[in-house]
Every structure is written in structure tokens, then in C-alpha cells.
Amino acid sequence: MTFLETILEEILRIFKRDGIEANTQEDIIKRLDIRHSTFQELFSSKADMVLKVVRFDIKEQERQQARLLANAQDPVEEVMLLLQDGIKNIQQTNPQYVLDLQQHYEEVWLMCLEYLNSNSYHLISEIINRGILQGLFRKDINIELVTRIILAQLNMMLNPQVFPPEKYNLSEVYRSIFLYYLRGICTEPGGKLAEAFFAKHNL
Fold first, then answer.
1. Domain boundaries, given as residue ranges, for the chain
2. What whole-number distance in Å separates Cα of residue 154 and Cα of residue 120?
3. Distinct helix (H) and strand (E) counts, the chain
4. pLDDT at residue 91 greater than cutoff 90
5. pTM here?
6. Tens of pLDDT, residues 140-194
7. What fold does the segment set 57-200 form as a domain?
8. β-pair partners for 186
């Protein structure tokens, strides 16, 4: 990992714990224990820092997804692992981080949405297509609609206004939404794999 990547990783950790605006640029420099001149060599402004941190986060998520998919046994497990990882990331992130992006760094937030809508959509649709070819997902499903529904369900379950975390167990919500939905688009062999995944991970 390069010096810049090490710095970006630490700033990302701070952002996900505290939010972005909770710390001034001066606070971040002190936390990083680097010189002002070093910071200025790396970032032209706080907005530039936020942009580079988010780009770094996206690259790290892509690497994590690649590792997950490499260890998956079948397309059903691939979808479940990706969804599970997405939920884990949200649970480990202060909601203020996302709110700060939306309110203070609109261009960066739009970049995040574009990434989610393009990368996640294409990744899941490709997995579902392979699952159909392998006889794990039904042949009569509309891949585009199914993919968008899965992404919409993920966004819905992560919305604290719909499922307040103090009232609902996220694992139970996850099971209620995705086990039953995936069983509906799976063939009999695919449905058994989905149930086995939930049993294996104690969900």
C-alpha cells in the first residue's frame, strides 16, 4: 500500500466513524500526524480529499467483492454474499457520513450513486444470467427487473425510516426479504442452495 493509500484508508476510517463534517481539515491533519505541507501536496482542498477518499473506498469495495466472488460456490451464493457484504458495510458506517456527502459534497454523492447504479446493476445481472444458464434461477424471469428489484429491496431494508435499527433486527429483515424473494426466482435446486446459505451463516 502506498503512502497516499495509507492516508486515504485512515481518513476513510475517520469519516465512517464520525461523519465528514465532524472534523475540520485541521483536525484531520492532527489525527494523521502529518505536516500541513504534506497534506497540501496530497490534497488541493477538503473537497478534493473527500473525492479521493470516496474513490479509494469504491476501489476497496471492488477488491472485496472480487474476493467474495472468488470464494463463492455458485451464483446463488454470489448474490447472497454481495448483499450480506453490503449490509455489513452499512452497519459499520455512521449514517452521518452519507448525510454529509449528500448535503455538502453533491458531486461526490452523485458519483457514488452512478457507481451503485452501474457497477452493482451489471454485476448482479451478470450473476443472475449465469444462474439461469446453470439451472439455478428460473428461465422465465426478467433479468433487468429482477436486478432492479434486488437493489431496491437492499436500499429499502437499509433505510432507517422503514426499518429503524432499534426496532428491527437487520439479520431478520435480511432473511425475510431476500430468502423468500430469492426462493421465488430460484428453481428447486437453487432454492435449496439459498436455504443452505442462510442455515450455514445462521441467518
1. 57-200
2. 11
3. 12, 0
4. no
5. 0.82
6. 999 999 999 988 887 787 777 888 877 887 777 877 887 788 889 999 999 999 8
7. Tetracycline Repressor; domain 2 (1.10.357)
8. 137
